[in-house]
Specification:
7-stranded mixed sheet; globular; alpha+beta; 6-stranded mixed sheet; 17 helices; single chain; 489 residues
């Protein structure tokens, strides 16, 4: 057999795709083809912000059916999605309750109470996960407090990709990389932490033992009657994206840029020191025992909302206008909770600038300038935190995902961080999904082998930092100065 065909179902917060990969083992070439693309968005149900989970499943099945209708029998299927959200099912496998999204406000104030009891240090010592108000830990506590009747009705809780795999195969699975995003997995045992589940107020019977990427969950029976293996890939989309990041060495950092920006580095050991806790660094699970030591940054979500509110469809034209505007005239903290899901993002950004005593952006170009500059400055700050944490500077930054197509932001990032930025591949989460499938099929030996394949099959663009750029001078003047003694050792 010369060719392998794998299908990646890649769901993001704003869209989903069913992608077909063709791997030529003789020439070591890998190509992708989009089979089906569809919109994903929140909808209000009974006052909650929810996912259209049935609609997403229908779109997934439609995409898979399209593949088979072409006469192609895939060798495997893998599913990756965003993290933290879950679906409850009962003993009969039927859904219980609503598929509430992480941006819903039901968790307001829950994390703050958790920081008091059981306490920030205790939670971090157990989980090693960044404190975000929508983590599954706080979602489940909100569920137990606000909808206690569901506790007895439900038999299992499945994270989103595991739920869709269950719907295709009828088999339960709890994939490790996504499980770690919940803040409920013990970092020392790699299984669910009974103490944290107890605080959340949910029964431990809801969760099975987490499994690492690469196992076959079961089979999907296609319309032609053939059984196609469904592989548990690195089902958190960032974990998949990092697998496809062609990191050139151990001193390269990565930035998965999309609705969220995830900046970090790979490590064989987690970083859970007091300094890591103070910097709110997360240690999410990765493939092959590699931790994803990273920080979540509110990424292009801000821009996506502004584009929708301002009825902007021509992003390149907007970026061209933005590029002509003064640098760092408007600066916000993109990670402020006020930007998680405001009624109007444009107005919220304007209010944040007004509250800080700054000029207020008045149009779409000025709002975009504010977002790009603020993200680049935050990238520089987080990269500095990460370098201090590992005790060694980085030599380059690899940006993957849809956001790596934004050349203005890439250059701002290079200038602010003072490092070469390598952009690409764009379809990182899809490719990482495919990579694990190919490893499971014994076509590739490991992640490093797959990254060599990525480098050989994709054009990567390097952005060289310009220390004379205004944003670089802004960083030199205003960004916090960290102790560099360890970095220079």
């Amino acid at each position: 057999m010369t060719f392998r065909h794998c299908v990646a179902v890649d769901l993001g917060a704003s869209s989903g795709r069913v992608m077909l990969a063709r791997y030529d083992r003789q020439n070591r070439t890998l190509s992708l083809r989009e089979i089906h693309r569809f919109v994903n968005c929140l909808q209000k149900v009974d006052g909650f912000d929810c996912w259209d989970i049935d609609g997403l499943e229908a779109e997934i099945r439609l995409g898979l059916n399209k593949v088979c209708a072409e006469g192609i029998q895939p060798d495997s299927i893998g599913i990756d999605t965003w993290g933290v959200d879950y679906i409850l099912i009962n003993r009969e496998g039927q859904r219980v309750g609503l598929p509430i999204a992480y941006r819903d406000n039901r968790t307001d104030g829950v994390m703050h109470r958790a920081l008091q009891n059981p306490g920030k240090a205790d939670i971090y010592r157990r989980s090693g996960i960044q404190f975000l108000p929508f983590n599954t830990l706080y979602q489940l506590r909100a569920l137990a407090e606000q909808q206690p009747h569901l506790l007895e009705q439900a038999d299992h809780a499945l994270l989103i990709p595991d739920y869709f795999s269950y719907r295709l195969t009828g088999n339960l699975n709890w994939e490790y990389t996504n499980a770690t995003t919940t803040q409920l997995v013990n970092i020392n045992t790699d299984t669910w932490d009974e103490s944290l589940l107890g605080w959340a107020g949910v029964p431990s019977r809801w969760f099975g033992t987490p499994t690492h990427p690469g196992n076959v969950i079961g089979n999907w029976i296609c319309p032609q009657g053939n059984a196609i293996p469904v592989v548990a890939v690195a089902s958190h989309d960032t974990a998949s994206a990092v697998i496809a990041a062609p990191l050139e060495n151990h001193d390269a950092a990565y930035l998965s840029s999309g609705t969220w920006s995830l900046m970090g580095f790979e490590s064989k050991t987690p970083h859970t020191s007091d300094e890591a806790l103070a910097a709110n660094i997360t240690n999410e699970g990765g493939a092959e025992g590699r931790y994803r030591v990273l920080k979540n940054i509110m990424g292009l979500w801000l821009l996506q909302r502004v584009l929708k509110e301002q009825n902007i469809s021509d992003l390149p034209a907007l970026i061209a206008l933005t590029e002509q505007l003064p640098v760092c005239r408007f600066v916000i903290n993109p990670n402020d909770d006020r930007f998680i899901n405001p009624d109007n993002m444009s107005a919220e950004i304007q209010a944040a600038c007004r509250d800080a005593g700054q000029p207020v952006p008045q149009n779409a170009a000025e709002l975009a300038r504010c977002i790009f500059d603020s993200l680049a400055l935050l990238y520089a700050d987080v990269l500095s935190e990460l370098a201090f944490l590992r005790g060694k500077p980085f030599t380059s930054l690899h940006i993957v995902g849809g956001g790596c197509q934004n050349q203005l932001l890439n250059q701002l990032c290079a200038d602010a961080c003072g490092l070469p930025v390598v952009a690409g591949p764009v379809e990182a989460s899809t490719l990482g999904n495919i990579g694990v499938q190919l490893m499971t099929l014994d076509e590739l030996s490991n992640v490093d082998d797959f990254r060599q394949l990525i480098t050989a099959n994709h054009s990567l663009i390097t952005f060289t930092p310009n220390p004379d750029n205004e944003i670089a001078r802004y960083v030199a003047r205003f960004q916090p100065k960290r102790q560099t003694k360890e970095l220079c050792a």
